[in-house]
Write a structure and sequence with these properties.
Number of domains: 3
Helix content: 40-55%
Largest sheet: 5 strands, mixed
Strand content: 15-25%
Number of helices: 14
Shape: elongated
Number of strands: 8
Structural class: alpha/beta
Order of helices and strands: HEEEHHHEEEHEHEHHHHHHHH
């Protein structure tokens, strides 16, 4: 038993020695790259004199930076570079900006803790064994979190002309936010896009007084102003306000969410008849093809117009937009016949924010939701049938 313990101790020590060696080599590599960066800026390596040289070295300074392996000292070369007007200016490293004291990995870890619901004190306590206490003060953590605000603002106003989505899911959900000294439930209007390779991307987030047509119109107009091309398909929940503004992209097809419509039908159907109604409805949305679905649709209308006219009228309200998904490849039907892709994201939003109680400001709410996706706290899978989507988007691009 003692022999095994001793052997294990040697293995642990060996791993620690290797780790220290790798850390040392990593820091040495960083210093070499910094020297090469300065040589490139000056136009000549150290001690070399030539006609292309435009500046001189000016010693070194020690910087303490916090990396994923802890706080370390790095020797940063200094220099003066001759500008075009003949004046000299201090060399600024792009690899290690002047006031940078933490690597991007550490900042990402801090933001990850924040997005997971930890406050500044808990973040410092969680990361202290790895990073030590230096550069992890309360103000340092706050500065990192403030970066999230600037990233969110840039994301909100980014150019969309080069982004292309085959499918857009549009839906809303509610968050509790303190407004005008009261905590109220406010709708968040969300847009989720699907790229050519099937990857889901958060396209837009906006707080609104309601899901009225005017508010959804602002969302879509904003996307168009920033150059977003029309998608092949828009999947919506059937909200009356949203339905009125879908004509903004006349070339895009519309699919009404079959899950939301089933709930509407249940609301209009007597409790004792709901099971039968659902069987008839399933024959529509789970048909073998579009032709069979239209036959089941017409049969549903005939039958329920006699049994419960309110149910038939509710189905007629959705019309052919309930069956649009049948016009796409069969492998994509499951992904396109409902807004579940966005509902799953909204469910994650609600789960991650329920510990917050309420948000103090609108910006704080949206910033957190954006950060959860941008920093990988919420991972989204590709849609089912994404290979066929790639082919469809390529064909539509060539046709255009």
């Amino acid at each position: 038993m003692q022999e095994i313990t001793t052997k294990d101790a040697h293995v642990v020590q060996f791993r620690l020695d290797i780790r220290r060696l790798l850390q040392t080599r990593l820091l040495e590599a960083v210093e070499v790259v910094l020297k090469e960066e300065l040589s490139s800026a000056l136009g000549a390596p150290r001690y070399e004199r030539n006609d292309d040289r435009h500046g001189y070295r000016n010693g070194v300074e020690e910087r303490r930076i916090t990396t994923a392996n802890g706080t370390r000292k790095v020797r940063v070369p200094r220099g003066r570079v001759v500008a075009k007007d003949g004046a000299t200016e201090e060399f600024r490293s792009e690899l290690l900006p002047r006031y940078a004291r933490r690597t991007e990995e550490v900042d990402a870890a801090i933001l990850g803790c924040y997005l997971a619901g930890a406050n500044s004190r808990r973040i410092r306590k969680a990361l202290q064994p790895l990073l030590g206490e230096e550069h992890l003060s309360k103000s340092a953590v706050s500065r990192v979190v403030m970066r999230l605000k600037s990233l969110f603002e840039s994301w909100q106003h980014r150019d969309l002309s080069q982004e292309r989505y085959g499918v857009l899911f549009l839906d809303g959900f509610h968050l509790k936010i303190r407004m005008a000294k009261r905590v109220v439930s406010v709708p968040v209007l969300a847009v989720l896009g699907v790229r050519q390779d099937g990857e889901k991307v958060l396209v837009g987030l906006r707080l609104a007084p309601s899901e009225a047509a005017a508010n959804w119109s602002e969302v879509i107009v904003d996307l168009q102003k920033r150059g977003l091309p029309a998608p092949l398909l828009m999947v919506v929940d059937g909200n009356a306000g949203l339905n009125k503004v879908l004509a903004a992209w006349p070339g895009a097809q519309v699919q009404r969410c079959t899950v939301h419509k089933l709930q509407n039908l249940r609301d209009h159907c007597p409790a004792h008849a709901r099971r039968e109604m659902k069987r008839d409805y399933d024959r529509i949305i789970h048909a073998k093809d579009g032709l069979a679905a239209r036959g089941a649709y017409e049969e549903f209308i005939r039958k329920w117009s006699a049994l419960c006219p309110a149910v038939a009228r509710s189905l007629e309200e959705a019309g052919s937009e309930l069956l649009t998904f049948y016009e796409f490849p069969k492998s994509m039907w499951k992904s396109l016949r409902s807004t579940n892709a966005l509902e799953n994201l909204n469910r994650e939003f609600r789960r991650r924010t329920k510990t917050q109680g309420s948000f103090g400001t609108e910006d704080a709410a949206l910033k957190l939701l954006y950060g959860l996706v941008a920093f990988g706290q919420i991972a989204m899978r590709k849609i089912v049938g994404h290979r066929e989507l790639t082919a469809l988007m390529m064909d539509s691009t060539q046709a255009a």
